[in-house]
Structures are given as structure tokens and as C-alpha cells.
Amino acid sequence: MQVPASYPRKYLNNLQKAVLDFNGLSILEVSHRSQDFIDVMEEARENIKKALNVPAGYTVLYLQGGASLGFLITAINMMRGTKKAAYLNTGAWSKAAIKEAKNAGLAVTEVASSADKNFNYIPKGFAVGNDFDYFHSTSNNTIFGTQLHQFPKVSVPHVCDMSSDFLSRPVNVADFDLIYAGAQKNLGPAGAAVYIVKEEILGKSSYANIPSYLNLKIHHEKESMFNTPPVFSVYVSMLNLRHLMKNGGVEAMQKRNQAKADLLYGEIDSNPLFEGTTVKEDRSLMNATFVLKDNALEKEFNDMWKAAGIDGLKGHRDVGGYRASMYNALEIGSVQVLVDVMKELAKKRG
Ligand SMILES: Cc1ncc(COP(=O)(O)O)c(C=O)c1O
């Protein structure tokens, strides 16, 4: 249940080797201008393209700064003549993105929001007018445990923060003008963010004097090597992508993630002591949020899952209860451990 992520042991072994000896030097010592590292960067970028079937006309970039810098970078690069942006507000990360868009000087309209029910659902059936520079969505909401299983069709460019479910399922990249994701859930260690950018959007911003680092056009022209990239994070994500591609890519990953989620949600729904906190159709495959119906059982349950070796199950303070994060690398066996604990509690107290 690790938060924010876990790694397949197999590639951690390769990583260990590279820390000692990557090409004679440690991966921590190697120059980012060396051919050996350029090959790493290119393999990582290419494998993201392969994994998500990225169509021609899109570029894949690795930048520093995480998704939080991405909130600002995307706003600045997508700003056009109207200086108006439409945001779907599905929780804390959407709100953070909205704040940065405003900081960039955009007038933000929340075209839909699930704030009325503490973000326990994904708004649907809303309209997005043509008079916006772009529309922004957040594909998965870690804190509230919701996920967009279908993306709204909009007539303006679509920007999506896929930080917390990137590479967990196939997506139709052609539906988006800009996808961004912090690395640290399904891709690699913190320190990098990935941008998948439709090349035709580059160089069209109306933002005056974009600082160089925030300008995606410059990163594209420099093949994602404008400055020193987050070498270690890119290297680990390259190993992870290799592992993903050898194991059936995102299609197989989606099946594994679905099986994990089915196992846990099945237990939440059938166990008399628990209930889920989100509406069923919007449940996240990455983060399952649930509560005990009777708070008096909290200590007993907490002691039981901790004794079973589970870590990080406590829910975010905005929701309370529990949150089981089931990112790509988490094996179904770990979900089974939690399910067994829940069953045991029901046997004793149900
Ligand atoms: C959907 C989403 N967006 C943005 C962020 C923030 O990412 P970072 O810490 O890389 O800035 C997170 C972090 O969990 C997230 O889940």
C-alpha cells in the first residue's frame, strides 16, 4: 500500500548495479552530455511513445520541478488570445493547478466541480465553450480516490494532469494537446516530470517573455537537454519503462490494476464493517478510499493492518478513514494481505 509508489524488485537490482558502475562511472557521476546518458534519455522518451502509442507530431520531454511546476508551465504555454482557461475541479490537485493558472495571469472558469460533495465524484455532462484558450482536467485524484474513466470531449485544446495514473492504462493521446505527469507514482523517483506535447501548440503562447525554463518550445528544440536533466530519475524511469514493455505494456498493466481494484473494492462492498467514500462509477484504480462504519473499531483495525506489514494506509486528512494506494508496481498479493485483514476483522466483530 506504499505511498507514493513502489518499485519492482527486479529493476531495483539493476539500479543498484548502476549506482556502483553504470559505464565505468556511477550513474550519479556520469555527464548528462555523455553518449551513454543521451542513449538513456532517448530510450526513456521512445518507450513512453511506444507504451502510449503516441502519434506522430507529439514530443515527449523530461523536465525538473514535478507536476507542481507543470501547473504553471502548462498554463503559460497554453495561454492564447482570450487569456481565459476552463478547469474541471475534482479536488486538491485541480485547485492547485487553478491557482497557478491564475498566477500566470489567466482568468479561470471552473466549468464543473465536485466540491459540493467533498469531491467524491467526477462531474459529467458539463459544457465547455469555445471561448477558452484551453480546458484542464486531472485524470486521477489521489486524495479523494476518484478517476476519470472517460474524458470529456471538448472543442478547445485539452490539457491533462496525469500524475497519479500515468502509464496505468492506455489513453488516446491524440485527444490531448498536452499531458503532464510527475514521475513519482508509476514512472520513477521524484525529480522529473514528463510532458507529452502536441508540437503544433509550441511557440503559440501569448505570455510575454516566457522564462526559458518554462518554455516547452525550448525544451523540445534541445531534445529535453536544455539544462542538466534529472539524470537519476530519468535513468530509473528508463529501467521501469523497459520492465513495463517486457511485461505487456500499459494494456497488461491496466488488467493487473483492474484485478487489484476489483479485489479490494469487492471486499469494501461485501464486508459489513466498511464502506467506500466515492461513488462507484468514479472509483480510482490507483487509490481506494474507504472508512470503517464504526469508529470504535479503528484502533483494532489499525493494529491489525500494521501487524500484517501494511504501511501508509491512513487516509488524507481531507477525507479521513483509509486510502489504499495501488500503483503499478504493487503486486496483487499485497492487496490480498489487506483484504485478509478486513475479513478477519469482520469475522471477529461483524
Ligand atoms: C494529480 C497530481 N497532480 C500533481 C501532484 C503534485 O506533484 P509534484 O509533487 O510532482 O509537484 C500530485 C502529487 O501527488 C498529483 O497526484
Task: Give your account of this protein's structure.
- By secondary structure, this protein is an alpha/beta fold.
- It has two domains: 9-246, Aspartate Aminotransferase, domain 2 (3-Layer(aba) Sandwich); 249-349, Aspartate Aminotransferase, domain 1 (Alpha-Beta Complex).
- Helices cover 36% and strands 16% of the residues.
- The chain is built from nine helices and twelve strands.
- It has helices spanning 9-20, 35-51, 66-78, 92-103, 216-221, 231-246, 249-270, 298-307, 332-349; strands at 58-63, 84-89, 107-113, 134-138, 140-141, 146-147, 158-161, 178-182, 193-198, 274-276, 287-292, 322-325.
- The strands form three sheets. A seven-stranded mixed beta sheet has the order 1-9-8-7-4-2-3, sandwiched between helices. Strands 10-11-12 form a three-stranded antiparallel beta sheet, with helices on one face.
- A hairpin with a 4-residue loop joins strand 5 (140-141) and strand 6 (146-147).
- It is globular, with a radius of gyration of 21 Å.
- The mean pLDDT is 95.
- Pyridoxal-5'-phosphate (PLP) binds at residues 66-68, 93, 138, 142, 161, 163-164, 182.
Blueprint (SSEs and pairs):
Blueprint: H1 9-20, H2 35-51, E1 58-63, H3 66-78, E2 84-89, H4 92-103, E3 107-113, E4 134-138, E5 140-141, E6 146-147, E7 158-161, E8 178-182, E9 193-198, H5 216-221, H6 231-246, H7 249-270, E10 274-276, E11 287-292, H8 298-307, E12 322-325, H9 332-349
Parallel strand pairs: 2-3, 2-4, 4-7, 7-8
Antiparallel strand pairs: 1-9, 5-6, 8-9, 10-11, 11-12
Helix pairs in contact: 2-6, 3-4, 7-9, 8-9
